[in-house]
Amino acid sequence: MLVLGTVACSDSVGPERPIDGQQLYENYCARCHGPDGRPAADQPQARDLSNRRIIDTLSDESISMTIRMGRPPGMPAFRDEFTEASLMVLVAYVRGLSGSQGSRSKSTGGTPPP
Q1: What rounded mean pLDDT belongs to the chain?
Q2: 70-109 burial, b for 16+ CB within 10 Å, e for fewer?
Q3: Cβ distance 56 to 110 under 8 Å?
Q4: What is the per-residue DSSP string for 33-102?
Q5: pTM for this structure?
């Protein structure tokens, strides 16, 4: 006789925990972009994430893609380091460093700052 057990959908596969954009940023980005979004002294080529004129011209999709694919020669690609949910939280945190409130869709675009 074969007995099969079932697992209810309510059974947890692991602990749930909130996704913290600041913690993600500090772990992956602050080393080059600085804790406040301004490039670290030893990484002057890093994009200034505190500059709202720059961040407002970027779509969420563009920021996500840059995080995933990197920006040669200096920014590494984080490819599959983030789930979609954690990537969305990180993008929102990056926007917040400049005071940017909105997100831009790919279709709205925007012109790069001078």
Answers
A1: 83
A2: eeeeebeebeeebeeeebbbbbebbbbbbebeebbeeeee
A3: yes
A4: H-TTSSPPTT-TTS--TT-HHHHTTS-HHHHHHHHHH-BTTTBPP-TTSS-HHHHHHHHHHHHHHHT---
A5: 0.75
Residue 71: strand pairing partners: 75
Tens digit of each residue's pLDDT (9 = 90 or more) over 46-98: 999 999 999 999 999 999 999 999 999 899 999 999 999 999 999 999 999 99
Q: In degrees to the nearest 10, what's the CA dihedral of 112, 101, 40, 35?
A: -170
- Give the number of C-alpha atoms closer than 13 A to the C-alpha of residue 77, restricted to the C-beta side: 6
* CA-closest candidate to residue 30, choices 46, 54, 52: 46
User: Which tokens in the block code for residue 106?
Assistant: 């790919």
* Domains along the chain with CATH numbers: 21-98 (1.10.760.10)
User: How many CB atoms neighbour CB 25 within 10 A?
Assistant: 20
